[in-house]
Amino acid sequence: MEATLVDTSRRIGTIICALALPAGAVGCGGHGHGPTTTPSTPKVTTLGRTAQNAPAGGPLTITSPAFTDGAPIPARYTCKGEGIAPPLAWSAPTGAALVVDDPDAPAGPYVHWVVTGIAPGSGSTSAGQTPPGTTTLPNTAGQAGYQGPCPPAGTGTHHYRFTLYQLPNDYQLPGGLAGAQAAQTIAGAATAQAQLTGTFGG
């Protein structure tokens, strides 16, 4: 009778293991001491890199401590003041370029500043500074630098767009571009954009 009970117990154990194994159960052997296995954890990859080595992502943003979006640009950063670039802060997950233009100019969009080669990540500049490690292309006036807002008298309030364009890491801007042509080429290659707009009246 005892042997029958033991044999029955073993059969029940075997049935339980057989049912459990497809669900990933481990540790069921002939005598309860069989080998166990630990499921491997697959590595998560991002753009071909392991997650821990992948660059931190985040939204594309551009702001200025000198003025908020849609607000007037302080005179210091215009032709009525020092005419220097306003301080900026930005976040760019990949490489980026900055274009400052005036879509309200009488002869069509007027490009005040073109900066390329902005490195991935977050950055900022103080008043009068250009983002470090970048290249400045000629603006509509032919100057490789920032030109402050200076709308013609009597033309009302103009809107100045500080547009940060996200570009592919391997993107190379063709040489010899300037002003509106450079701005259009950058906009055409961009994968995303963020914009800060300031106003100034002529």
UniProtKB/TrEMBL annotation:
InterPro entries in UniProt: PEBP, PEBP-like_sf, YbhB_YbcL/LppC-like
Put simply, this protein is called: UPF0098 protein
Pfam families registered for this protein in UniProt = PBP
From the broadest rank down, the organism's phylogenetic lineage runs: Bacteria, Bacillati, Actinomycetota, Actinomycetes, Mycobacteriales
- Where does the source fall among the domains of life? Bacteria
- What organism does this protein naturally occur in? Mycobacterium avium subsp. hominissuis
Q: Which family does it belong to?
A: Belongs to the UPF0098 family.
